[in-house]
């Protein structure tokens, strides 16, 4: 008389579902990585040696057609100071990264630096490394 049970537990593991999950994650990260964009406006920076530290900063960009941007938001020249003050109000040590194209006149760059000086903001001039 054979009294063994019919339900045998096999010690094998099926990896088919695990590979499906790995491929789905791979596809997700490949698609997500192509959607990542830099948080900057495309401008041609002057070249110099040096390095900019990556801290919590606000970027002010000046394009060749003399349009001003705070981070990626376009602002007018007349409201630049008030917009900068409101953007920097929450920062402990307010720092501006000034990104100006090569062809921007010095007067426009100095205007942003003057605003920063009046309001005690630190200014870092962004350049393209050599």
TrEMBL record:
- Give the keywords, sorted: Cell membrane, Membrane, Protein transport, Transmembrane, Transmembrane helix, Transport
Cellular compartments annotated? Cell membrane
Per the UniProt entry, the signal peptide is none
Q: Name one Pfam family in it.
A: ExbD
Bilayer topology: Single-pass membrane protein; Single-pass type II membrane protein
Q: Which regions span the lipid bilayer? A: 21-41
Q: Which family does it belong to?
A: Belongs to the ExbD/TolR family.
Q: Which PANTHER family match?
A: EXBD MEMBRANE COMPONENT OF PMF-DRIVEN MACROMOLECULE IMPORT SYSTEM, TOL-PAL SYSTEM PROTEIN TOLR
Q: What is this protein called?
A: Biopolymer transporter ExbD
Please name the source species: Winogradskyella echinorum
């Amino acid at each position: 008389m054979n009294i063994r049970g019919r339900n045998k537990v096999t010690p094998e593991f099926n990896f088919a579902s695990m590979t499906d999950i790995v491929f789905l994650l791979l596809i997700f990260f490949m698609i997500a990585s192509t959607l990542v964009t830099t948080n900057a406006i495309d401008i041609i920076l002057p070249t110099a040696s040096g390095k900019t530290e990556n801290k919590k900063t606000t970027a002010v960009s000046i394009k060749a057609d003399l349009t001003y941007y705070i981070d990626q938001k376009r602002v007018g020249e007349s409201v630049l100071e008030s917009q900068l003050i409101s953007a920097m109000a929450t920062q402990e040590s307010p720092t501006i990264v000034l990104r100006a194209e090569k062809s921007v006149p010095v007067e426009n760059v100095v205007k942003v630096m003057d605003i920063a000086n009046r309001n005690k903001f630190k200014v870092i001039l962004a350049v393209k490394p050599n």
